[in-house]
Amino acid sequence: MTQDTWNFIFIGISFALYIGIAFKSRAGSTKEYYTAGGGVSPLANGMATAADWMSAATFISMAGVVASSGYDGSRFLMGWTGGFVLLTVLMVPFLRKFGKSTVPDFIGDRFYSKTARFVAVLCAIFICMTYIMGQMRGVGVVFSQLFGIGIPLGVIIGASIVFLYAGLGGMKGITYTQVAQYSVMAFAYTIPAVFIAILLTNNFIPQLGLIGNYTQGDATPVPFLEKLNNINTSIGFSKYTDGSLSKIDMFCITAALMCGTAGLPHVIVRFFTVKDVKAVRKSACWTLAFIAVIYLTAPTIGAFSRVNLIEKLNNTAYSEAPAWLAEYETTGQMAWVDKNNDGIINIHGPATSSAGKPNNNVFVSDNGKPKYPPADADESLQKGQHGERLLALKPDMTNPNELYFGTDIMVMANPSMAGLPKWVIALLMAGCIAAALSTAAGLLLVLSTSISHDLMKNIIKPDLSDREEVNYARIASFVALGVATYFGINPPSAFIAKTVAFAFGLAASSFFPTLLMGIFNKRMNKEGAVSGMVCGILFTISYIIYFQFLGGTKDQWFLGISPEGIGFVGMLVNFAIALVVRFFTPAPPEHIQHMVDRIRRPVSAPGDENDTPPVVH
Amino acid sequence: MSKNIPSGPSPDQDSRYWKKNITVLSCILVIWFIVSFGCGILFRDWLDVHFPKVGNAPFGFWMAQQGSIICFVLLLIAYSFLMNRLDERSGYQSPEHH
C-alpha cells in the first residue's frame, strides 16, 4: 500500500472516532456545555487535559527546538511541566471549590468588580485567540501536505471539524474526544522514538538510550551524549550539553513559562469538570503523568534525530543522500544549496558574516525560509545538476553552510530517517492532527464561554436564559473560528510563532498573580487586583511589542532578559503594584472574606452557599 | 471513616486546617524549586562536575531534561496523598463519605 492510503486509513478512522464520540456525548444544558456536568472521572479528565495542553506546536516543534538548542531546550521541558505543579498546589483545588465555570467568573466575584471581570475576559479572549490561530495554521499545513490541497482549503476543513465537535458537544463532547486524541498522540510520539532508540543505542527505552551508549556501527560503544557533543563541536556548534543562554535569561524564561502555565484559562477550566476537590488532586496527578510520557520522550527524539540528521547527511554526496531528503525538499522543510559546487552536502556551525555577526544562514532572505520558483517555470529552474530542488533565493555566501532544515522535521521526518514502516508515519500524521484539533477545540470553548457567559450574561445582558446562553456560546465559537480561519489562511507573517511566547507572558503577568492573591491574600481588594493586573499586562505587552515588532535590540534588554522571559518580570510588577495599592485602599467587604474562607475549605459546609450573594456593581 | 463529622466547621478549625495546608504546599514548592531552578539552572555547572553521573549524563543536564519532570510527577502524587490525609484528619471529608 502507498503512504497516502495508509494516511487516509489512519486519519479517517481517528476522525470517525472523534466525531462519533462528540455526537454521542453532546451537551444539553449550560452545565454540560461548560463543565461536562462536573462528573468526569479523574483518569479521563487527566488524559483530556494532557491532550488539550499539547498543541500542534508542542507536538511537532518542541523536540526540534531541543535538538537544535540542546541544554537550552530544557526551558520548555521544565517550564511547561513545572507549571503543572504550581497549577495543582496553588490554583485548581481552590478554583474548583469556588464552583463557577470560568476564570473571569472567579476574578469578577472575588474582586467584586465588573472592571476586574472585564479585564479578565479581555485577557482570556486574547490568549485563546492567538493560540487558536496558530493551531488552525498548523492543521492547514498538515492537511495540505497530506492530501495535496491548498493550505486555505486545509484550514477550512480543520475549522469545520473543530466546530462540529466543540460547538455541538461543548465541554462534554470535547472531553471524551480528547481522551481518544491523547491515546493517538501518545502512540504516535513514542513508537518512532522506541524504534530509533533500538537502532542507535540498542536500548528499547528511549530515555535510557539517551543516557546510555551509542552503539550503531562502532565496535566500541561510546556514551551517547559524548557522541552528540563531538558531532556538534566537529562542525562548529557548541557542546550539546552546554547552553548558550545566560543564567538569568534561562531562569526568567522558565519561570514565565511555569507561571504562564498556571494562569492559562483553558487548562484551569479543565479541572472544573471533575466531581470534587479530592478528584481535582487525583486528576492533576494523572494529567502530569500523561504529559510526562510525551515530555520525557521529547529530549530523546531531539537528541536522536540530531545525530541521525548530521551523521547521514553531512559530507554525503547529494546523489547518495537518503530518499527522505528529497521528500522533505518537496514540502519545503529541507533545502540544499551547493555553494562550493562539489555535489557534497556540507553542514557547518555558526560562522561569522562579513558584518562580524554570527551567521549560519543558508540563503539570503528576510526570514530564512526556502522559496521556490513558480510551478510553471522552466525545467532548468526547478532541478539542479545533482537533481536537487532549486530555490528562488540567493545563497548567502558569507558562510559555507549548505543545508537548511526546519525544526518541525525533527519529529515529522523521524520515522523516515529511521526507515520505519509506512503505517508508523501515518500514525504520526494522525497524532499531529489530533494535537492541533484537541487544543483548538479546548481553546475555542474557553473563548466562547468567555464571550457568552462572562461578557453577555454577566456584564451586558444579565437576564439571559440557560438556553440562550448556550446558543450565544455556539454563535461566539462560530465567529471566533471564522476569525481564526481568516488568520490561519492569511497569517500576519511571523506574528503567530512570536505570540505563543506573548500569550504565556500575558497569562503569567495577568491571571497568575491575580488568582494567587485572590486565594492566598484575604485582604487583597479590587483596587489592588485591577491595578496590578493592568500594570502587569501593560508592562509585558509594551516590552514584547518594543523588542519584537518595533526593532528594539538585544543590548537594550532589561537586565539581559529576553522578551520570551519578560512575563516573569511583569508578574513581579503585578504583585508589587497590587500590594502597594492595597495598602492605601479599604479592605474588601465582609462577604468576600467569607467567600475566601469558603474556597479554602475542601468541602462545603452547611450554609456555605449563602455566604456569597451574587455581586453586581 | 465516621470519626468526628462536623456539624459545620468552626472558624478556629478552618484556620488550623489552612495553616497545615500552607505547610504542605510550602514543602512541595521548596522541593519543586530545588529540583527545577536549583538543579537544572542555578547550580547546574557545579552539579555537572561534582555529582555522580546519571547513566552517562552529567547530573545537572539530566535533571534539566528528565529528572525534574520525574520529580514533578512524584511531587504531585505526594501532594495528593498528604492533602487527602490532612482533609480526613481535620474532619473534612468528601461528600461520598457522609
From TrEMBL, chain A:
Listed GO CC annotations: plasma membrane
Bilayer topology annotation: Multi-pass membrane protein
Locations listed in the record: Membrane
A GO MF term: transmembrane transporter activity
Transmembrane intervals: 6-23, 53-71, 77-95, 116-134, 146-167, 179-200, 248-272, 284-304, 423-451, 472-489, 495-516, 528-546, 566-585
Chief location of this protein within or outside the cell: membrane
Keyword vocabulary terms for this entry: Membrane, Transmembrane, Transmembrane helix, Transport
Spans annotated as Disordered: 356-380
CDD domains named in the record: SLC5sbd_u4
Protein name as annotated: Cation acetate symporter
Organism name: Oceaniferula flava
TrEMBL record, chain B:
Transmembrane segments: 21-43, 63-82
Domain Sodium symporter small subunit: 15-91
UniProt-listed InterPro entries: Na_symporter_ssu (IPR019886)
Keywords assigned: Membrane, Transmembrane, Transmembrane helix
Signal sequence bounds: none
Coiled-coil regions listed: none
Domain of life of the native organism: Bacteria
Protein's name in the database: DUF4212 domain-containing protein
